[in-house]
Batch of 2 targets.
Target 1
Amino acid sequence: MKNVIAIYPGSFDPLTNGHLDLIHRGSLIFDELIVSILHNPEKDPLFTLDERIGMLKEFTGHMENVRVDTFGGLLVDYARQVKARALLRGIRAISDYEYELQMALMNRKLYPELETVFMMPAVSYSYVSSRLVKEIARLGGSVTGLVPKAVEERLQHKVNGKS
Ligand code: PNS
């Protein structure tokens, strides 16, 4: 039997219900799914790395074959390090496809043994992105149903200037 380790990489700033939907789907088809947060010192995320680790652990803790990790540098180097054979990415709409295709082909050029697997989230999350969630929260709109309740509360604290 093959033991397929997959990575689901991303910024997760913040974690959305779309991410969780994809993590659940991935956990059903891969033997192990590593949800790995990109640690990029050049970016200025809303949530610190520790906060994002905490949120992911909180909402994936019940999935036995899912673990949370972080990585820096090239994703393919990290994939080699953790012996991943697959890379999971979500495609919400055709607009995601061009960027994702370019990234998948570049990663294949760098590491041909690593296969990118695209999955679609539930239609109800097909318009959800961390970027829009942050923008809506900053402008005082409701993000109920787009992120877990606890993330929604932390988001309100952040945008209202509380730590
Ligand atoms: O959640 P995001 O921001 O869409 O995730 C993008 C991510 C983290 C998958 C991508 O930026 C990435 O892989 N960065 C690591 C650096 C790298 O390997 N770059 C070359 C990609 S072809």
Target 2
Amino acid sequence: MTTFDVIDPTTEERVRTVDLASAEETDQAIARARTAFQTWRRFDPADRGRLLRRFADAVDGAIEELAQLEVRNSGHTIGNARWEAGNVRDVLSYYSAAPERLFGRQIPVAGGVDITFKEPLGVVGIIVPWNFPMPIAGWGFAPALAAGNTVVLKPAELTPLTAIRLAELALEAGLPEDVFTVLPGKGSVVGQRLVTNPEVPKICFTGSTEVGQAIMAEAARHLKRVTLELGGKSANIVFADSDLEQAAATAPYAVFDNAGQDCCARSRILVQRSVYDRFLSLLEPAVTGVNVGAPGDESTEMGPLISAHQRETVSSFVEGDDVDVAMRGSAPEGPGWFYPPTVVLPRTTKDRVWTEEVFGPVVAILPFEDEAEAVTMANDTAYGLSGSIWTGDVGRALRVARQVEAGNLSVNSHSSVRYSTPFGGFKASGIGRELGPDALDNFTEVKNVFISTGDA
Ligand code: NAP
Ligand code: MG
């Protein structure tokens, strides 16, 4: 049996040793989920909804336990971790209404009646990254289960603990065996097998663009459906006519939240040149004021990075003579993979820190002249996940929002994710949408049935 030592990123101490599934065990889990699908898909829709509500209630009763587990496994701040566990509950309760509302259509045709059904796909494989272990799992499994699919979910090797607990809670809530299976394992073993096993018709993947591309290429061989949520290099565009104090005070949290390990991080700040210097002076106290420390402390705003490896990757964007650091917050010494909030001034728009996803607490700032240049610079990236627009001019807010090539934009706010609204990326940030009313379409096939009425 291969095992993995889960390490607390704050203390660098072992939390637990987890057994990793093999390719054979993955195949067996898929086969069991395939059998369970035959029953689950035929459940009375009201019962399926009721079980998902019970699952939501079980999560609700375990919020503190799940949150504390995430603090230890992932170094998330306790405040964030409570929100993340609550998000799983909310997504479950939102989609618990879906089984009874998976409406098809009745379409007028000659000679009979035509109706459509939204049929479940079968066993859905969900591959989750380490940055938001609970929410990203829930965004996949809640709508997948609601639509009548069964799920085999692979958490990231680094962060399996909350997913393992969620699977136990599902059983405690009364979900039948093998409807929702969590299978800890390596991406190259369990993840790979979910993608290559022909009994899995759909893969829901969140992670790096590189692995997402490989999954899509492999999925094409089987014509598997894919939903991909990949990286981002999102722009926070600050116009001179905005509430500059508010824009500067909130900008750090739009990128340093979760220590910057957020695909929606607004990691490029674009500031209109006429207010650029003033913005920088307002930003400085906001950056140095970010409270970095032990994630279990209620007042901590930013904890450690997930791993020593991630810290090395992040620092590679900042170390070096050709990188100008404008300001820097603090980070605790000693154990823990902490990295201070860091603001960098790129020399050109070709600098690595301006073009590549850092996935850490590093933000780059550049000035722009006018609205046209702001849009051009915002779109000068392979990614297109999210972004923010700060302006007092509602017309400009909408003009710019329509022109920025990204799936999730916020005006005078940095909000990207609500369970009731769609989430997903343009361009290299992904394919498909999660959350909101339409996510179920990504877990169903439309079937058309014509019934002859025997008319001439
Ligand atoms: P990753 O390799 O893409 O991992 C994401 C998930 O895919 C993990 O569960 C991983 O399993 C699994 N996986 C890896 N290789 C696989 C394969 N060949 N087939 C199927 N599944 C596979 O991401 P990472 O290496 O953890 O992070 C690298 C960079 O990706 C980050 O620095 C960041 O830039 C980006 N990233 C983006 C997001 C996002 O939210 N869009 C999330 C995470 C990372 P294992 O963990 O067991 O390897
Ligand atoms: Mg990887």
